Amino acid sequence: MARKVAPITEQYQHFVRELKESFWGDLYQGGQQALKQILEAESERERQRYLMRDAYERRADTADYRNGSYEREIVTRLGTIRFRVARTRQRAFLPKAVKRLQRRAEDVALLIREAFLRGISTRQVGRVIGVITGEVVSAQTVSKISRSLDGMVKAFHQARLSDDWVYLFLDGVSLRVRRPGGRKRVQMLVAYGVGADGQRRLLGFQRSQGESQQAWEGLLGDLYRRGLEGQQLKLIVTDGCAGLAAALQTIYPHVAHQRCWVHKMRNILESVRKRDYDAVKADAQAIYRATHGKVARAAFQRFHWRWQNVYPAMVKRLERDLPELLSFFALPKRLWRKLRTTNVIERCFVEVRRRTRPMVCFVNVHSVDRIIFSIFSRFNGDWKNRTLRVFTQAA
Description:
With about 400 residues, this protein is α/β, with parallel strands linked by helices. It has helices at about 10-25, 30-50, 95-100, 105-115, 120-135, 140-145, 150-160, 215-225, 240-250, 260-270, 275-290, 295-305, 310-325, 335-340, 345-355, 365-385, 390-395; strands at about 65-75, 80-90, 165-180, 180-195, 200-210, 235-240, 255-260.
């Protein structure tokens, strides 16, 4: 005989009970009632001390007297507690213990932040918390708690950096922010480091209006002041931004610079007619897929000979950028694929876009910093015990 399926409502109630038990532990049931009694008794004692008289006493020399109570809710580690707050005509007597418990216990605040940073909207976060605590938290409360990340963001930007990073990847990602004059785009400039032992870390980020030399000097100068002086740096990989290239000459002038081939290929093929697309692509790929730097330069000469008369401007730009496009050949061959593009940092941007897509646009620039910080912190935590083997093997 077919097994009878429990109603969805019953399954949901069972899930909620299990979720409460796993989150709050064994104290959940009895602890709520005990805490409720303690808070109500403290509130009553404070009112009694204030009035200095019995419940039914009346005196002509005071205008204040008992006025019942009202109900108040707080979310604690034991869940949502609803208790009575004693009051008089002129004031209420919220127990001092409530201030110590805070409006939201730290466990709940952490849960709210985690749900928010997982990509759940502020309204949906409130409903999730409601499942656990019995109280639906407002979107405003979620936003307020998320602002507690600001101190962590500040600490991240001020943290000292070791000077043992060997490879530095630099790139930017564009995000939309809601401003008084309408929606505008801001650029998030990002630095990603890889050590000789394969350790990797997102080292810093900075919000800017674009990718100018001044903007990049701001981020690079901050990395330098925090300790990344570049004594061990062998290569800096960028997307080819002119402002970034100029900034590198100011902050890290003695470190070799590698331009990303993915970005360069995109630029090359934008100038090509459809009928020549495959041929130009194959000839350009022959340059960076060469077995040696000399072979790569020979491949460029063939590219130059074939396409100079058809696309003179494109070939001229490629010739100008060629030295920085071939820098990776001076490093161990095992690392060439990793070092000739900014793909390692672009993968981080995929997660940034995925996380921020449901938001449509950020309410303000501070919310941008919080989200970027949280995403990068998660990456750094995940990478703590996971090295890039190809760099370890090449060391």
